[in-house]
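We include the pair:
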Amino acid sequence: MKPASDASIPKEVMNILDPARSVLVVWDVQKMLVNNIFNKEEFLASAKIVIDAARSAGVRIFFTRITQLPDHFQSPVRKYLMSRRSPLAFTPDGMELAMDPDPSDIIINKNTADIFIGTNFELMIRNAGVSTIVFVGIATEMGIESSARAASNRSFFPVIATDAVSSSNRDAHFRSLENLKSMMIMYTARELASIWSKLKTD
């Protein structure tokens, strides 16, 4: 789905991205991750476009944050798989968010690459009548993809801002977007901003 202009945005997309029924998830924009992606400046600029557009349209925003469990209680599967990747610097500074949430934003501390596991996120958005979840953040092939698939399986519309998601692995990032394009709703940051701007003024 890709609008050619504001005037030709499909009606169903306008309904899906209704600000009153949408939330924006800003996934794991922690310094240790942001500093290692392949397109840091472009990513931050695109993410800001989506965040600013969401704020302007009245879309509620959730920031997620990796929260380490005590070592003894960490998943052995996760520990093993993470040991095969480049080690992350879980320093206090590295764990800080690289973008500043507003006081009205909600921070979700989570322990897995799925926003629905071990959090109250689903309860909160169902209570609020939300049907659409827009994703920006890091990493595309991990938390973004797994959470977007989980959202779809729970009957939420998953929307991915294609230039406002990223990874330290450029090839994996683009493979993930290619895999997801037939099953997710995808827009660029500017396209999303245009849609929310149109909805805000209607």
Observations:
- The first helix runs from residue 11 to 16.
- Helices lie at 11-16, 31-34, 40-57, 76-83, 121-127, 140-153, 170-180, 189-201.
